[in-house]
Amino acid sequence: MTDHSETAVLGKDSAPVIAEEELVEGSSLWKDAWARLRKNKVAVGSLVVFVLICLFCVLGPFLSPYDSNAQDLFSGAEGPSADHWFGTDTLGRDLMVRVMVGGRISLMVGLVATVVALAIGVIYGATAGYIGGKVDASMMRFVDLLYALPFTIFVILLMVAFGRSMWLMFVAIGCVEWLSMARIVRSGVLSLKKQEFVEAAVSLGYSHSRIILRHLIPNVLGPVIVIATLTVPAVMLLEAFLSFLGLGVQPPNASWGVLINEGQANMEIYPWLLLFPAAFFAVTLFCLNFIGDGLRDALDPKSAKD
Amino acid sequence: MPLLDVDDLTTYFHTRDGVVRAVDGVSFNLERGETLGIVGESGSGKSVTCYSLMRLIPEPPGRIERGTAMFDGRDLLQMSPKELRKVRGDKISMIFQDPMTSLNPYLRISTQLIEALQMHRDIDSKAALNKAIEALEEVGIPGASKRVFSYPHEFSGGMRQRVMIAMALITEPDLLIADEPTTALDVTVQAQIMEIIKQRQNDLGTAVILVTHDLGVVAGSCDKVLVMYGGREMESGSADQIFYRPRHPYTRALQKTIPSLQEKGQELFTIPGLPPDVSKPIHGCAFHPRCPYPKIGSPEGERPQLEDIEPGHCWAACGFCDSSAPIETVLAKADDHVAEPVDGDA
What range does the domain containing B124 cover? Predict the structure, then answer.
C-alpha cells in the first residue's frame, strides 16, 4: 500500500536522513489506480473500442452523405453494398447513418441518466448515512418504496399522464437508477463516519455539509465510479427495452433500441437490419462492463501497488 | 480565572440495556499552559470526559446530563452548534488515538492542513501553505516542503501522529486535548511524540489534557493528575501530591502496577478483579470490590464525597475501608487474600 522502505526510514528518526530530491512526489490513490488500470489489457482495449464507437456515432453523421430520415423507397431493404455499407432499411434509409444517430441517442440517454442518478443518489445517500438515526431510516424507507414500484408500470403511467417524450424517459430511468446509488453511498458513508478522520474533522470545527461534501463523498467515489460505469449500460438497456416496447424514443427518431425493434420485425428476410444495431449495442455494453470491472479492480484499495 | 473549569460533568449513555454511567460527576480545572493527566483503566471514562468537553458524544444514545465546563468564561456544554464550530479547532483542538485513521486518506496533507487553518483564519492559500510547511517542520518532519504534498498513506504511524499534532496546533489553540496520543504507536516513537507535544506546548503556551494509561508519561509531563475509576473521580491533585502522597487505595494500587517500580524477577503486580460494570448502578465506593485494604462497615450506602486533604489535592473520601496504612504493608499482610481472585477474575 505504501512505500515501506521509505516510510520505515523516515519513521525511525526525525533527522532528515533522506536528501530532499529523493523524496517522491506524492502519488495519489487516483494515480495508482490509473497505473493499475493501464495494466489491465481488457479494460484498456474496451476503453479504446468504446471511444471509437462514441466518435463514430458523434462525428459519423457529419461525414456521411445520407440523412438519417431521408427515405428512398426505390432502394428499400438493400443488403450491405459499396453505397450503403450497412445496407438500407425497408424505407430505404441508410442504416449506417441511422446506427450512428441511434447511437448518439442511446449513449446520451446512458450518460445523462447516469449523471442524474449519480447526483441524486450520492447526495441523498451521503446525507442519510451521515445523519443516521430516524432521518436515515425514513429516507431509506422512501428508497425501498420506490424500489418496490414496478418499473414498467411506472413508466407506462408516466407516459399516460404526460404523453410520450424522451425527457420523460430520462426522468423515469433516473428515478429508478439513483436508488441503488443511494444505497451504496449510504453504506459507504455509514462505515466511514465511524472513522476517526471524521471525528477529527468535527473537532476542527468543520460544518456538516463540508464534512459530507469534502471528506466523505470523495472517499466513496471509488465504488461510485464503478457503479456509474456499470449503470450506463444498464440505463442503455432500459432505454432499448422501453423503445422496443414503443414507450421510449419515437420513430422516425432512432435509438439502438428502436433500430433493434425494427430489425427484429424483418429479421428472417433482412437479417442485417437486426445485426448491425444489435452488434453495436452489444459491443458497447461489453466494453462498458469491462471498463467497470477494470475500474473496480483498479480502485480497490486492497489491491497492491506495484 | 482558570482557562477551563469543569464542574460535576456527567455523561450517560442511554442504551437498550440500560443507562451506562460513563462519566459521573467529574470536576477539575486547568490554567493556561498547564498539563492535566487523566489516568485510569480502560472504561473508566477518560475518553468520554474529553469527548464530552468537545461535545463529540454521539447523541443519542449519549447525553451530557449535568455539569458545567467553563472555558474562557463560556460554558462549552451550553454552546450552540455554531458557537461550537468556532471554538473547535480554533481555541480547542484534539488529537486522537489512532493516527492511521484520523487523516482523510483521499486528501493531500497540504490540503488538510490548509483547510484546518483557513477554516478559522482569514488567510490566503499561499500564506496558508507556508504556514502548513512551517507547522510540519515544527513537529520534526524532514523535507516538509516536499512531504506536505504527500498523501497520508505515504507516512508511517509516527509521522501521521506528527501531522495530526501539526494540524491540531496550526491555529495555536489555547487547549489541546490528546486522547491517548501514543497508544497506537511503537514504544520508540511514543517518547518522540510526547516530546513533540511538550515542546510545542512550551512554544505556544497551550494547555494540554493528556489521557493516558502510562503513569510514567504522567509523572514526566503533567502538572496535575486526575485519577478516574468507573466514571468517577477517585483522586486529583498535583503530580507531586498524587505520586508522593497518594491517598486513595486505587491510586496507591495503580502506582504499585508500574513495572519499573517493581522488584526484578518478581511477578508483576496487578490489581485483582475487573473494573466495575458502569451500566449497573454503583453503590458506595466504586473500587470497593477490588480494594486490598481491610474493609470496615457495609459497602452499600452513600457514594464517597470528595474531600480536600491539602490545597489542590482531593480524594473520594472512602469510609468503607481502613486506608491509613501504606499499601505495601497491606499487600504483604493480605498476600493470600490477594492471590485468590476477588470476584470474576477472568
Answer: 101-171
Structural domains of chain A, with CATH:
109-306 (1.10.3720.10)
**Residue B222: inside a domain:** no
User: Which residues, in sequence order, are bridge partners of residue B74?
Assistant: B71
**CA-based nearest distance B215→chain A, Å:** 25
Helix (H, G, I), strand (E, B) or coil at B83: helix
Among residues B122, B150, B171, the one where a domain terminates is: B171
Q: Which residue has the higher pLDDT, A275 or B336?
A: A275
Closest Cβ–Cβ partner in A3, A28, A197 for B104: A197
Residue B343 lies in a domain: no
Q: Is B121 on the interface with A (CB under 8 A)?
A: no
Is B325 in a helix, a strand, or coil?
Answer: coil
Give yes or no for A191 touching B (CB within 8 A).
no
ipTM strictly over 0.95?
Answer: no
pTM above 0.90, yes or no: no
Tell which residue, B306, B304, B288, B308, has the closest CA to residue B296.
Answer: B288
pLDDT at B14 over 80: yes
Grid look-up 500500500 returns: A1
Name the DSSP class of B139: T
| pLDDT band, very low/low/confident/very high, at A3 (cuts 50, 70, 90) | very low
Sheet holding B74-75, edge to edge: B18-30, B4-15, B62-71, B74-75
- Residue B113 domain flag: yes
Residue B106: which of A10, A199, A219 has the nearest Cβ? A219
Choose from B146, B171, B194 for mutation: most chain A CBs within 10 A.
B146
Q: How many independent structural domains does chain B possess?
A: 2
Domain stop point among B145, B171, B197: B171
Amino acid letter, residue B105: P
Q: How far apart are CA A256 and CA A279, in angstroms?
A: 10
Give the pLDDT of residue A301: 58
Q: Confirm whether B323 is domain-assigned.
A: yes
